[in-house]
């Protein structure tokens, strides 16, 4: 005996607002960029089809290669600093008592500050004339001026990003540590395990999943960073801190080359998507093996 089930499709109407919102915020702008990437535009909205011309131009451009190298160097640097530093800070934070809330609030404060404000704060903080950081470094006898020296600009940019985003790694790592049952620590204590052995064989494996999320988030965020470095250095001095996002905005709004800018934005988008997918796939496969 079979029972006839009544299918109610009215529930789909509840999803329609979400679909409309996604289409308006994502699909329609993306299709507009795709349209510009294969055409040449002139005044009066006159368009000529160019095919893959702009993509080839961007991929063979030395300017794009230089910005990409700077972006890769920045991403590798901040990941190498923020992940170990965040794990180290999480390990030192208390597990019980009133200081837990204090530490968590202090860690969350940098994440609550708007990105443009972070850039403005560090711009003033690092000015060599009256900024606290700039005057302190110059007071030590070290010549420091991030507005003129490329090395100083890179140092300030990395320092700003570490200050702003290490807290995210700390909070994720701390959540992973708090999820470890006390029985593991009790067994390690009975076996006489050292502090390093506890970290290597208990804490680090249990934090692997949250650290995967932390690295993935920081990888994507660092590749898409724009506001903080733009407010801090504007891409200078010269082009020394012109990352991919800043270079893209210069082409689109500064030069108003909509075709190359659209092609570069699509390449940029696919690069971030591919890197995130490859990283996530590799990490999840390694986790499944263990």
Question: Could you explain the architecture of this structure?
Answer:
This protein has 290 residues and is mainly α. It has a domain at 73-243: MetI-like fold. Helix content is 74%, strand content 3%. It has twelve helices and two strands; from the N terminus they run αββααααααααααα. It has helices spanning 12-37, 53-59, 62-92, 99-112, 115-125, 132-139, 150-178, 182-191, 195-223, 227-232, 244-254, 258-289; strands spanning 39-42, 46-49. A two-stranded antiparallel ribbon has the order 1-2. The longest helix is centred in the C-terminal third of the chain and has 32 residues, at 258-289. The radius of gyration is 24 Å and the shape is globular. The mean pLDDT is 87.
Q: Would you give the CATH topology of the domain at 73-243?
A: MetI-like fold
Structural class: mainly alpha
Q: What is the count of helical runs?
A: 12
Give the fraction of residues assigned to helices: over 70%
| The CATH C-level class name of the domain at 73-243 | Mainly Alpha
Radius of gyration: 24 Å
Quaternary structure type: single chain
Shape: globular
Kindly report the average pLDDT value. Answer: 87
Question: Which strand order does the major sheet show?
Answer: 1-2
CATH superfamily of the domain at 73-243: MetI-like
Distance between the termini: 48 Å
How many strand units? 2
